[in-house]
Design a protein that fits this description.
The chain is α/β, with parallel strands linked by helices. The chain has two domains: 240 residues, Type I PLP-dependent aspartate aminotransferase-like (Major domain) (Aspartate Aminotransferase, domain 2, 3-Layer(aba) Sandwich), CATH 3.40.640; 125 residues, Aspartate Aminotransferase, domain 1 (Alpha-Beta Complex), CATH 3.90.1150. The chain is 39% helix and 16% strand. It has 13 helices and twelve strands. The strands form two sheets. It has a seven-stranded mixed sheet with strand order 1-7-6-5-4-2-3, sandwiched between helices. A five-stranded mixed sheet has the order 8-9-12-11-10, covered by helices on one side. Helix 2 packs parallel to helix 9 and helix 3 runs parallel beside helix 4. The N and C termini lie far apart (67 Å).
């Protein structure tokens, strides 16, 4: 009988040192490992290929997402790049049209340099997916919810199409984490994370993860990772393990706060739109006047204007000049990533303090309008 995810998280790394009985796993910094003789390996040979601390992390990640194997990378983008290396010139992928700008940038680089075609569409529309399918299509890549417009996509529905046409289904699960969503159990073949975000949770470690449904995929990606070398360091592996121990607790508070703040924003006359799925700690909103964006971000005292998400602190990001600046403005506007859109990673501070910070800034902005006419 397998343990609950909360228990898996808290117990990660425990009972891995039979000699000392250490509760916190050791940070194994060694880059090389002794061989007693030819063909006699402990299972660790060179730290790029395998490291004991990273192995504990990868085992935990696989359990969390209910996959067969996990690989830890030096960043979320390194993880996505490794997945893209599964494909060859002439291959085509169907991709969420509303997705993280860094992923969009990387996809265009692969398209230009390696001749892999990416079709950016609204994957919620099955007819659009079917239009793009052809003999060269190899995979579907999606975020759910999408970044930053918070559109949810049915993984199981897309999985049905992927299975019928023998495509890989790749899901970025950074926003929801395995606490709220397990893409592999819904039919995905590969799950990617920017583990820098909610998994790490403290804005102090840069990391990425790939979890796969099958050993075959796992071995292919391991060979790619070992060849490229973008592995997570032992210390960062330990930091990520430590951060994940409180993931369930943090996600519950993120979500509780986000629901209250969403309700507050929906009813505020300085806000025109609130984009929130009702789950998790991420939401986006459009402020009523574009000229307010700069002053709004400058006047915040509790919330930080910063380019990240998923940490314990509340962050607001401006996609137009930060996360999605590489997407042409006309395309951003078409999608709804306009110059009034703000992305809000709701932290775990007391919700009254977060709302008070927002209210103070809105009142200042409205006061300036009255003074200046």
């Amino acid at each position: 009988m397998k343990n609950h995810i909360d228990t898996i998280l808290v117990q990660s790394g425990n009972r891995t040192d039979a000699v000392t009985g250490a509760i916190s796993p050791a940070i194994q910094l060694s880059t090389a490992y002794e061989h007693k003789g030819i063909g006699q390996s402990t299972g660790f040979d060179y730290s790029r290929t395998g490291n004991p601390t990273r192995a504990i992390l990868e085992d935990t990640l696989a359990k969390l997402e209910e996959g067969q194997r996990a690989l830890a990378f030096s960043s979320g983008m390194a993880a996505i790049q490794a997945v893209l290396n599964l494909f060859s010139t002439g291959d085509e992928l169907i991709v969420s049209q509303d997705l993280y700008g860094g992923s969009y940038r990387l996809f265009l680089q692969f398209e230009k340099q390696y001749g892999i075609k990416f079709h950016f569409i609204d994957i919620r529309d099955e007819s659009r997916v079917m239009e793009k399918l052809n003999g060269r299509t190899k995979a579907i890549f999606l975020e759910t919810p999408t970044n930053p417009l918070m559109n949810e996509i049915s993984i199981s529905s897309v999985s049905s199409i992927a299975k019928e046409y023998k495509l890989l289904l790749i899901v970025d699960n950074t926003f929801y984490t395995p606490i709220l969503q397990k893409p592999i159990t819904a039919g995905a073949d590969i799950v990617v994370h920017s583990a820098t975000k909610y998994l790490g949770g403290h804005n102090d470690v840069l990391a990425g993860a790939v979890i796969v449904k099958s050993e075959e995929l796992g071995e292919k990606l391991f060979i790619i990772q070992n060849s490229i070398g973008a592995v997570l360091s032992p210390f960062d592996s330990w930091l990520l393990l430590r951060g994940m121990k409180t993931l369930s607790l943090r996600m519950a508070r993120h979500e509780e706060n986000a629901r209250d703040i969403s309700e507050y924003l929906v009813n505020h006359d300085c806000v025109t739109d609130v984009l929130y799925t009702g789950k998790g700690g991420m939401l986006s909103f459009r402020i009523s006047r574009e000229e307010w964006v700069g002053p709004f971000l400058q006047k915040l005292k509790v919330i930080t204007f910063a380019e990240s998400l998923g940490g314990v602190e509340s962050f607001i990001t401006y996609p137009a000049t930060q996360t999605h600046s590489d997407i042409p403005e006309t395309e951003r506007n078409r999608l709804g990533i306009c110059n009034r859109l703000l992305r809000f990673s709701v932290g775990i501070e007391h919700v009254d303090d977060i709302i008070r910070d927002l209210e103070n800034v809105f009142n200042q902005l409205k006061g300036e309008v009255l003074i200046n006419g």
